[in-house]
Specification:
The strands form 6 sheets. The protein has an 8-stranded mixed beta sheet with strand order 5-4-6-7-8-13-14-15, sandwiched between helices. Helices cover 25% and strands 19% of the residues. It is globular, with a radius of gyration of 27 Å. By secondary structure, the chain is an alpha/beta fold.
Length: 471
């Protein structure tokens, strides 16, 4: 509401300042925030460029002005499925936040994956922490989920959640109620969607990060931005006074405090303001622009390009008016959408920026491998791509040799199946009440032999089928 009122004077639906006009908003980090903001922004036809998944629009006002800086979620579904099929991981677990978007994800991927031969060992929905009093229940739920993960034959776990889901995941190694799990946890490959990033609360800064080592995630395609690391390294509280959040960030990231006015004593270290952001661990600040940061970067440049196009059109219109060829009118807020929808340019990293007819950025996804070194330093490496706009027909690519797996797999490709493949001379016998990925192997009867055959419905796993030797 402040953004749409005169500076320093909040009067809803009234603005007397002719110089400060809001033309668009970038945000928010989670879908619900974007939806709440849109209910107000849409009244004034102000576009919102969001860098999170699209809010669930069921029973909501149609036509809210969203522009997505991320590709449609269906591309992530296809990317995860391609990853599972490539490595022949047919027995997986699924964790999701107990929210509308999480349930939408479950309803979309379960039938899609099942028809391609993927079975789910379990599907767990993690409750969202609303009140501090719910913390004990959430910890108990987390302990049960972690024990289920560790006791399952599935070595691959898919995570769908918000950006803060990582905070919950990092609790896992400290929650187990079973002694053998704490002593010798099994290897796990975590597959995460694009909105999940490595974030930490202050008290988690020194926690072991081994649980995420070897994880695979999807992220909006990004490229290196020349000069970005030097720019971020130069940011200081004293020279960034327009940034209202930098002092809070600084105090949490460097575990120090800025003395307040009239304050004589400060608990802990005092912030100098000259601390080096390059020394911060990955969970607090990454010097490379990837993930949400790159989406925000593209949103800023898309807006700038649209504003440029709008003023160029105004200038051209004014020139035509002077010649008597056109009557010039001031641009109305809702007309900015026309220029925003039509942006088409290459950013400084060389990536093309444009929207499709649904207001979704035409962009692919990168497959990222999360690596934690023995000294607990953290970095990400691109190991694949999901690119629907490629000129070739190979939408999904993966560079398996570039992937670092969790250390408990001893550098071998992880296996995640419910039942091992049956050997020649035997056939599958489905287990009653179990998913089709779980079966026993039974010897072929006399005068029968077995041969490989692909299962129907496009399933990627195969077994042995007995048939008459003399057919």
């Amino acid at each position: 509401m402040l953004l749409m009122s005169s500076p320093n004077r909040l009067v809803p639906n009234y603005k007397c300042d002719i110089h400060h006009h809001l033309i668009a908003v970038i945000g928010g980090l989670d879908p619900l925030t974007s939806l709440h903001a849109a209910t107000v922004l849409d009244i004034y036809k102000i576009p919102q460029l969001i860098y999170s998944p699209v809010p669930v629009m069921e029973d909501k006002t149609p036509g809210l002005s969203f522009y997505q800086m991320v590709p449609q979620e269906a591309l992530q579904y296809e990317g995860i499925l391609s990853l599972l099929l490539h490595f022949r991981w047919t027995w997986v677990g699924l964790l999701t936040m107990d929210l509308e978007n999480g349930e939408r994800f479950v309803q979309a991927v379960v039938p899609m994956f099942t028809s391609s031969g993927i079975c789910f060992a379990f599907i767990e929905r993690v409750s969202k922490l609303s009140l501090v009093t719910d913390l004990k229940d959430l910890i108990q739920q987390g302990a049960k989920i972690y024990d289920k993960v560790m006791s399952s034959k599935a070595n691959v776990m898919i995570i769908y959640g918000e950006s803060y889901s990582m905070i919950f995941l990092r609790w896992f190694p400290y929650l187990s109620e079973q002694e053998h799990v704490n002593i010798n946890p099994k290897g796990t490959v975590w597959i995460m969607t694009a909105q999940v990033e490595l974030t930490s609360l202050v008290y988690q800064r020194t926690w072991d990060k081994e649980i995420i080592h070897g994880a695979l995630s999807f992220a909006v395609h990004s490229n290196d931005i020349s000069g970005f690391q030097q720019f971020t390294a130069s940011r200081k509280p004293a020279t960034s006074k327009e940034d209202y959040f930098i002092k809070d960030f600084w105090q949490q990231a460097f575990a120090c405090s800025f003395p307040g006015r009239g304050a004589e004593d400060v608990d802990g270290d005092i912030c100098t303001g000259d601390e080096n952001m390059g020394t911060l661990p990955g969970p607090f600040f990454e010097m490379n622009m990837i993930g949400h940061s790159y989406s925000i970067y593209m949103a800023v440049y898309a807006m700038a390009q649209a504003v440029h196009d709008m003023f160029s059109w105004r200038l051209k219109s004014r020139m035509l008016k002077d010649r008597g060829q056109l009557s010039f009118q001031n641009q109305q807020p809702w007309q900015f959408h026309h220029f925003l929808r039509g942006v088409l340019f290459n950013n400084s990293a060389g990536d093309e920026v444009s929207f499709n007819q649904n207001g979704e950025l035409k962009v692919g996804l990168d497959v990222i491998n999360w690596i934690v070194s023995l000294n607990q330093s953290f970095h990400k490496i691109k190991v694949g791509r999901m690119d629907p706009h490629t000129s070739s027909h190979q939408v999904f690519t993966i560079h398996e040799d570039a992937i670092t797996w969790q250390r408990r797999f001893n550098k071998a490709r992880p296996i995640s199946v419910c039942s091992e493949s049956c050997s020649p001379g035997s056939s599958k016998k489905m287990k009653e009440g179990e998913p089709f990925c779980c079966y026993d192997c039974t010897p072929c009867p006399e005068e029968k032999i077995s041969d490989q055959m692909v299962l129907p419905a496009g399933r990627s796993n195969f077994g042995w089928h007995c048939y008459s030797e003399y057919c």
